[in-house]
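re: ur question from the group chat, yeah i did fold both. here u go
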Amino acid sequence: LYVGVYDNNVYALDRKEGDFRWKYPTDGGIASRPFVYKELVIFGSEDRIAYAVSRSGRLVWTCPTQGRIRSSPVVEFDHAFFGSDDNHLYAVNAQTGRVIWRFEALGSIRSTPALGEELVFVGSEDGHVYAVDLSSGSQRWRFRANRAVTSSATIFEDVLIVGSSDRTIYGLEAKSGYSIWRVRTGQAVISSPVVVNGTVYIGSVDNHLYAIDAKSGRVQWKFDAGSQIVSTPAVTRDAVYFGTSAGEVVSLSRKDKKLRWKFKTGGPVPSSPQVVDNVVYIGSTDHHVYALPA
């Protein structure tokens, strides 16, 4: 299990027992989620540098930027894509860290890029969602929301789904950026959407988790968690899992939309869970990483 921490380190932990294996130090906090690609663990740091370390914790390459990196990398086609607070989206060679292209937005890029067949989509603090050509890094279109887009977009068939701090969840036509549907929430949407079986699951700072039809934008149901949700949900066949600002990890039944269980940690949980082999892995601001039975 690889996890980035605000003590400036990425930790490698034994998944079964939670035992410490190694940590790799940087000069800044790590808000970015590490991406495991082949034998590399790739992540960004607030020290303005993207790193690739081996699975044993040895440095393989670095890619310096001019701003803090809070965007999580995604790797496809042997390229790593990530944003920086220097307003740029980077495409770098995943094996060497060499920059292939950089795309300049009007503000910091803190969301994680979403990859289509020809385009890479990313939200920016400047209030836009950008579609950028995968091979050249040139802009194809941009969509204007009314506030920052920290939420990371996801693609379902030909619909690009993303949240914004303007209190709205958007469904956009991926080819053109044209708005197909929008769902208003009571507060900012920092959480990122997850789509399973045509249903979008996403949290809002208005305390609710929303389940939305990905094609039509119709709200199927929403659950009041009692506190803010900036965590991105994890969805399995039976359940939805997410963290809250009240320090709880929450599990909902997908079948009857009811609460399955809650687990209380010692601090707010902005972290997003990962579910592997019926275990929920999640971090908390109480300085702990938890492994919970799903």
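okk and heres the other one u asked abt
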Amino acid sequence: MKYRDSGVNIDAAQAALARAKAAVRSTWDQRVRSDLGTFGGLFSPSPGEPLLVASIDGVGTKVKIAALVERYDTVGQDLVNHCVNDILVQGAEPLFFLDYFATGRLAPGALEGVLAGVARACRENGCALLGGETAEMPGLYAIGDFDLAGCIVGRVAERDLIDGSAIRQGDRIWGLPSTGLHTNGYSLARKVVFEQAGHQAGDVVAPLDVPIGEALLAVHRSYLPHVRALWRAFGRAAVHGLAHITGGGFTDNVPRVVPEGLCARIDTRAWAVPPLFRLLGELGQVDREEMYRVFNMGVGMVVFLPPDLDASALADVGAVPIGEVAEGADKVSLRF
């Protein structure tokens, strides 16, 4: 099975965005400090002040699992943590957050649960929840359906900006473990688990030891405390690059930070793939290249560091060595 078999075509989306680039860039002036394709957009409000970093995202069709299980707080946490990670890869600390909740008709407990999760994650990340928008749109969304998106703004001093330009040949690549699927690949996961295999959310399916619905709702991890720990241990300049492994998996996200002429050589055998990913691959007969383009496969953040750092600090945050940077034109190479 391919991701497009579930109705998602990554290549078509990228092609459409490429066609829209000229229109987007026509709105820019000298205050815009990033190009399209970065995890967060950079904006300089005035010379000498910290750069503002903004990102907007959603949790995809994970909301369908939340509605099925009738538990809504976890997707609220997912939303915030995902956005925190997207600006973190550029060295930014979060400032404030706004949410968007849209539905055909409000289900009892849905909005309250989502906002409770959003607020909890904002508190945990030191991020103010300024407000948001709630929209009821019958006729656009079916009864019981809802969608969720969020916008985050953070800041980073220009000297502390992480953009991948410091990545060098010989740098070591480390992986920070994920807590599950996080917030991408759910269209394929739902098709495999519920449509093709015919499982129910409450089924405990080997090799899992919890109901499949619970496993699919595991909260997207915030890597802010992990990266802060690395900054304290090694200094900010030691973190040469960060890649958040979300939609597009390793194949599309790692190249976003690797400079031209270099290749991130990642050995997928360096870590144990969690049972949930193995289950999805087996049930859907998904080939391994597709798995590593759709899912994070147990590594939610990739960190590029110099080769001579004390490994004990890395072990303290659960980091696993997964590869190194070499010369090459492909930007990323996966060894199976």
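fwiw on the second one: The mean pLDDT is 95. The CA atoms of residues 185 and 294 lie 6 Å apart. idk if thats what u expected
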